[in-house]
Amino acid sequence: MKNQIKQHPISEGGYTGPEITEVTKVTKVKKRNTMSIVLLITTFLFLGTSVYLLSDNIQRGKVADNLTTKVIESEGRYTDLDSKYTATLAELESYKGRNAELDSMLTVQENYVIGLKASLNKERKNHQISDADYKKHLAELDAVVIDLNAKLEVAQKQNVVLTTQRDSMGVDIGMKQTAITDLQTANTGLTKKVTIASLLIPANVELVGSRFKTSGKELVTYKAEKSEQIRLCFNVPVNTNAEPGSKVFMIRILSPNGTVLAVPEQGSGVFTTVKNEELPFTTSATVDYKNDEKAVCVHWTQKTPYTTGNYKAEIYQDGYLVGKSNFEMK
Q: Which of the following CATH numbers is that of domain 203-329: 2.40.160.10, 2.60.40.10, 3.20.20.370, 2.60.120.260?
């Protein structure tokens, strides 16, 4: 049945308007119910989406925290390995100068360790280092130290055989001399190991060119015509074997042609290495060590323009080479 609107005649009270039937009322109720259902469904969808986004953000936060932890652990392993490689190179350097055969063997070992360190630096730029890779590098380094000690022991035994002599009374002078030499060698070796163990091996060594803006802000540059100075920065680590006090680092900056940048009026001079070699140095850095980590930066300025090519820096402490760095000036 179609909706009907009954027309009422005009009464004395005036026209009362059309009368809405029951069908019209039911239709309006259905529309309201439909709108309520749509609104309810929309509300549930919005709540579901909000819960999903919240859960996704929490998960992403956990992933980011986990990644940050892995990066920190990886950087710590790289820093530790770099320090151990540098210490091993310093120990190899300290044994040179005794005889040609031993020097030849030490050079081979030194080149091998330098290769391992270069490989480590290359890996550091490309990816994180896992605990397994860290232990692998340590094993390779331990193998070098074990092999070195074995060869040094053989060399010492050969030296004992060659120097053994007897006098006319059959007294083994050579054996006595050997005993004294062994004691002296042991004492010297112990002193060297104590010295090496107390060295402050620089970390994060960085050599760059730099210039200053008119505002006074320092900017890094690799262009020769823009470089006003050369800057060398490194971190002095914590070493519980080192006594607190003033520590001096001798710094050599080598130009592309291999000569040491030096101006006596700017503090340049000469120092003696553990091999009793006198080497010229560019400048020095004195650190008041208090068993805590310190950041150190030194600047070298010269009147003549810088040339293009590869610049190198060497850091010495107590005559030992403890750090290196280089960069290309374009």
A: 2.60.40.10
